[in-house]
Amino acid sequence: MKNIVISGINSVAVCPIDESFPADRNLIEAGIIDSMQFLDLVALLEERVGVEIDFLEIDASSLTSIQGLASALGAE
Amino acid sequence: MRVLVVGNGSPASATLRAFSQHPSIEIAALLTSESKTATPDGIQILSEELIRDVEAVKQRRLDDIDWLIVANSTTIIPARVLDLFQNRALNFHPGKLPEYAGLHTHQWAIRNGESSFAVTIHRLEATVDSGEIVAQSHFHIDPNDTGLSLFQKCMREGSKLLSEVSSQIATGKPVMGQPQDRSKRVLYKHADALGDEIDWTMAAESVRNFVRAGNYSPLVSPTYTAAFSLNDGTRLTVLNSEVGDPTDLLPGTLISVDAEGPQIACGDRKALRLLKAVNNGKVVNETDWKSLARFMH
Question: Is the interface score ipTM higher than 0.85?
């Protein structure tokens, strides 16, 4: 799942990241993606994995890291 | 058939994907402000600004198309350019029309206490969000929806709706429209949505709606995040709240502080309990509230 998330990030972000990027780091604060790209990333990952992440069911602040996204996608 | 797509994010991607599934459709270009967009391969990507320049549009033959689809763009297209696309331009508006035209309308829907909302595809006219409605998708607003969660719903529903309308166009089905009821039209402007000050004289439920509409956590709200100042000048940002106990105290008065958060009197003899507030980037806890209480009315 982590690889799917990284590949999704690289589809929307201007500067690509690889597996060495810390999985718990905030992608927005790190400047990898901005707010609009964050929403695109969630939509893209939802489509690729085939699940919908409901922002009401989950603390959206957990979704700003690779780890948070991977667990949200895996847990649905 | 040739189409031109202007837009950003998942609505633009969904539109392109729907068109690219039809061999009879040629996508002239995607005009976008994003530096990188998830698009099918081989699509010409140009700057969104081009759509404001009538000469550039003509020079690149972008007016030699059957349909212009504007999918999630806030660029105002000048009338001179719109004239090139008469009766063959559609716009996706992430809001319910005619009641919610303009900007940040999903936040206004929450502020206004609405329990349902919609996204709309309409014919593009020179007046903002005023053309005939071609398709609309209605959905529920959850009592706990925030500005961000409702925006996400709008983008999701909008992407589906754009997919449907794009497929309809690609398969040669007629695009029918219904005129908007102008008497119901309300136009929301950016500047109207910026004030962040909590008005404690409002009903507790209205303050709660104001707070959640401004909550874009973990992202930055495009308009405001609800806030209020203490007597010592400390500015507290409020992200989450609930309607609390009945009270006879004056609006803005601190009633109590406990583990769940402080209760502050509102204008309808009810209190609002602040469930999550932030001071300089740090969440305010019970101990903080007890020390801050002396600076509250």
Answer: no
